[in-house]
C-alpha cells in the first residue's frame, strides 16, 4: 500500500466509499500537508480541495463513486511538490470536462487536472512544499509515512468541530481584514483630500510658471535676434577687416622679399635676421587674415559648393606633392595611401582639398617623430577619410573644444615650433558639414590623434 508511484514515494493511501469518509480524507490530507512542512493556510486549502472532491464523488453524483486517494512527494524535483491523486470510476456519462467544470479548485492548489486511465478518471492536484532547512529525503519520508500510518483517525464529529474552529478563525481573520480595509479607506480618503489640495496648489503654481516661461521665451527670442545680429556684424567685421589687412600685409611681405633679394643693397647679418623675422611675422599674419576671411565666409553662408564628380586618387596625389614639401624633418614621414579604384565621390574638389590639407598640416605641426598617414575607404553610402598622426595628442575632455574658434590647448606647444591660430580645425569642420558630412576626432595624450572625415558618396545638395 505504500510503494513508489509515478511521482515519488507514497506517504498515505486511502479509500473513499461513503460520506463519513469525506471527513476522514479531509483530516488525513491536512495531516499529510502538516507532516511535509506546509503552512497552516496551505494545509486548509488542500483539505478543502479534498473535501470538495469527496462530496462531489459520493454525495453529488447520482451513483456514489468509490475512489482511492494517494499522497506522494516528488523527491528529485526542486522545489519538492506534494502530489495528491484521486482515482475513481464515476457513473457513465461523467467525463474529464464534466469533473473539470464541476470542481473549480484552481485557487486552492497550484495545479489541478483530470485525465482518463482506462475506465477510471484520475484527479491530480499538486501543491509546492516550502523549501525546508533540508530537503525531504527518502529516509525522512519513510519516517513521515510510519507516523501517518500509526496515527489514529478522528471521528466525523471531531473533524466537524475542527472545521468549525477553522471557519471561526477564518471569520475572525476576515473581520480583522475588513476593519483594516475600513481604516485604509479612511486614510486613503484623507490622502485624496490632501492630494486634491496639493493638485490645486500645483496647478496655480504651474500657471504662474507658464506665464513666466512665456515671458522668458519672449525675452530669449529677443536676445536670439540680438545674437544673430551680433553674429552677422561680427562676420561682416571679420570679412571687412581681413580684406583690408590683406593688402598691407602682402605689401610688407613683398618689401621684405625685396630687402632680402641678393640683387638689392647688401644687408648686415643683423639686418637680414630682422628682415627674416618681419617676413615670417607678416606671413603668419597673412595666414591668420586668410583664415579669418574663409571662416567669415563659411559663417555667413557665402560659400556654395560646386558639386562635381571627383576622383579621390587625384586629390590624394596633389596633396602628397604639395604637403610633402612641409615634411622636411626626417623624423616625420608623410604617408598618403591612395584609395582603391574606382574612388569617385560627388563633392566640391576645392573645399575637400582645403579640409584634407588643413588636417595634414595640423598633423605635421604637432608630430615630432613618427608619421602622418592619410587613408580613405568606403563604408556603406559614405566615404571615410582618416588622417592620423603619432603626435602629442589631446586629452579627452578637450577634444571638442579644439573645434572652437581661436581655442588652443593650454600647455600643448608644437614640437616643431610652428604657431597656430586656432581657426584651422573649426574651418575644416564647417566645410565638412557644408559638404554633407562631418569631422570627428579621437586622441590619446602621447599616442597621437586621428581625424575622421565622413562624406556621402552622393550628397543631396
Automatic annotation (TrEMBL):
- May I ask which residue range the UniProt record assigns to the signal sequence? none
- Coiled coil stretches, renumbered: 157-191
The UniProt record lists the keyword Phosphoprotein: yes
EC? 2.7.13.3
Top EC class, one word: transferase
Q: Tell me what reaction this enzyme catalyses.
A: ATP + protein L-histidine = ADP + protein N-phospho-L-histidine
Location(s) in or outside the cell = Cell membrane
Question: Keywords, A to Z?
Answer: Coiled coil, Kinase, Phosphoprotein, Transferase, Two-component regulatory system
Q: Name one Pfam family in it.
A: HATPase_c
* Molecular-function annotations in GO: kinase activity
- Primary location group: membrane
| Ranges for domain Histidine kinase | 240-459
Cited PANTHER family: HISTIDINE KINASE, TWO-COMPONENT HISTIDINE KINASE
Protein name as annotated:
histidine kinase
Q: What is the lineage of its organism?
A: Bacteria, Bacillati, Actinomycetota, Actinomycetes, Micromonosporales
Amino acid at each position: 500500500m505504500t510503494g513508489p508511484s509515478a511521482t515519488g514515494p507514497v506517504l498515505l493511501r486511502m479509500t473513499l466509499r461513503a460520506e463519513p469518509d469525506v471527513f476522514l480524507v479531509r483530516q488525513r490530507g491536512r495531516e499529510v500537508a502538516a507532516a511535509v512542512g506546509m503552512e497552516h493556510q496551505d494545509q486548509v486549502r488542500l483539505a478543502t480541495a479534498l473535501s470538495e472532491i469527496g462530496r462531489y464523488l459520493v454525495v453529488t453524483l447520482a451513483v456514489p463513486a468509490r475512489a482511492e486517494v494517494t499522497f506522494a512527494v516528488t523527491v528529485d524535483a526542486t522545489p519538492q511538490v506534494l502530489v495528491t491523486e484521486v482515482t475513481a470510476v464515476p457513473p457513465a456519462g461523467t467525463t474529464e470536462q464534466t469533473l473539470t467544470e464541476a470542481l473549480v479548485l484552481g485557487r486552492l492548489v497550484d495545479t489541478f487536472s483530470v485525465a482518463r486511465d482506462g475506465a477510471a478518471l484520475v484527479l491530480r492536484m499538486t501543491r509546492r512544499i516550502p523549501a525546508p532547512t533540508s530537503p525531504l529525503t527518502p529516509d525522512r519520508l519513510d519516517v513521515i509515512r510510519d507516523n501517518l500510518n500509526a496515527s489514529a483517525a478522528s471521528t466525523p464529529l471531531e473533524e466537524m468541530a475542527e472545521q468549525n474552529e477553522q471557519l471561526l478563525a477564518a471569520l475572525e481573520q476576515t473581520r480583522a481584514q475588513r476593519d483594516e480595509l475600513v481604516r485604509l479607506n479612511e486614510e486613503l480618503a484623507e490622502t485624496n483630500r490632501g492630494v486634491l489640495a496639493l493638485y490645486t496648489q500645483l496647478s496655480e503654481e504651474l500657471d504662474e510658471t507658464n506665464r513666466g516661461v512665456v515671458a522668458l521665451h519672449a525675452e530669449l527670442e529677443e536676445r536670439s535676434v540680438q545674437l544673430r545680429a551680433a553674429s552677422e556684424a561680427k562676420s561682416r567685421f571679420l570679412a571687412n577687416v581681413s580684406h583690408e589687412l590683406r593688402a598691407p600685409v602682402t605689401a610688407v611681405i613683398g618689401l621684405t622679399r625685396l630687402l632680402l633679394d641678393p640683387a638689392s643693397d647688401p644687408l648686415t647679418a643683423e639686418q637680414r635676421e630682422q628682415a627674416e623675422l618681419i617676413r615670417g611675422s607678416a606671413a603668419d599674419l597673412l595666414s591668420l587674415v586668410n583664415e579669418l576671411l574663409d571662416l567669415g565666409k563659411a559663417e555667413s553662408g557665402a560659400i556654395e559648393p560646386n558639386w562635381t564628380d571627383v576622383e579621390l586618387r587625384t586629390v590624394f596625389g596633389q596633396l602628397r606633392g604639395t604637403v610633402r614639401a612641409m615634411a622636411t624633418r626626417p623624423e616625420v614621414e608623410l604617408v598618403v595611401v591612395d584609395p582603391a579604384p574606382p574612388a569617385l565621390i560627388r563633392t566640391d574638389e576645392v573645399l575637400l582639398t582645403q579640409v584634407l590639407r588643413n588636417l595634414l598640416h595640423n598633423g605635421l605641426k604637432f608630430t615630432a617623430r613618427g608619421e602622418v598617414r592619410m587613408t580613405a575607404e568606403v563604408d556603406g553610402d559614405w566615404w571615410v577619410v582618416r588622417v592620423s598622426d603619432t603626435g602629442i595628442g589631446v586629452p579627452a575632455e578637450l577634444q571638442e573644444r579644439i573645434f572652437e574658434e581661436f581655442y588652443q590647448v593650454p600647455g600643448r606647444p608644437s614640437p616643431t615650433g610652428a604657431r597656430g591660430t586656432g581657426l584651422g580645425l573649426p574651418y575644416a569642420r564647417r566645410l565638412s558639414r557644408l559638404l554633407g558630412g562631418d569631422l570627428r576626432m579621437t586622441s590619446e595624450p602621447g599616442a597621437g590623434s586621428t581625424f575622421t572625415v565622413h562624406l556621402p558618396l552622393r550628397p543631396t545638395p
